[in-house]
Design brief:
The structure is a single chain. The protein is mostly helical. Among the domains are: 59 residues, no CATH class; 38 residues. 49% of the residues lie in helices and 0% in strands. The chain contains five helices and no strands. It is elongated, with a radius of gyration of 32 Å. The two termini are 58 Å apart.
């Protein structure tokens, strides 16, 4: 995901004030761009010092729950390698409902023959030889009537 100043403005401004001790209203556009590049680098490498700098809305919701005396929803943050491995395997499995090909073996053989003929026709043309009109053409069996 590509982050932009527009999408992460609240998080970036909070980071500027709290971590860099800089008032966002007093810096130039050039300094703002440089600081945002630094913020993006820390964001992408997950080295920001606090969770609120990643998503301010989630942080504010959690803090509102705590202020109201409510319990936080339980989030199991333990890593389960088996679930990760299963998800990886599922992403590589082929759907069982689809056929591998919509063509029969005979049709595939015919297409391979035509492809081979086209390659041969190209070689003959490059040598300056006469190439038959029907070479490299697939015949469906549907004939057009004039």
């Amino acid at each position: 995901m590509r982050i932009s100043l527009y999408n992460k403005e609240a998080e970036f401004r909070t980071w500027l004030m709290e971590e860099c001790k800089i008032n966002p209203e007093t810096i130039t556009k050039d300094q703002n761009k440089k600081r945002f590049a630094q913020y993006v680098e820390d964001y992408n490498t997950a080295t920001l010092p606090h969770e609120k700098y990643y998503d301010m809305s989630i942080y504010e919701r959690r803090m509102a729950l705590l202020r109201n005396g409510e319990t936080l929803p339980y989030v199991d943050e333990t890593y389960d390698a088996n679930k990760d491995f299963e998800a990886h395997l599922k992403s590589h499995r082929k759907p069982t409902s689809e056929k591998d090909s919509f063509l029969s073996k005979e049709q595939l053989k015919e297409l391979r023959r035509v492809q081979h003929e086209r390659l041969e026709a190209g070689k003959l043309r490059s040598l300056g030889l006469e190439v038959p009109q029907s070479m490299g053409v697939r015949m469906d069996g549907n004939e057009f009537e004039d």
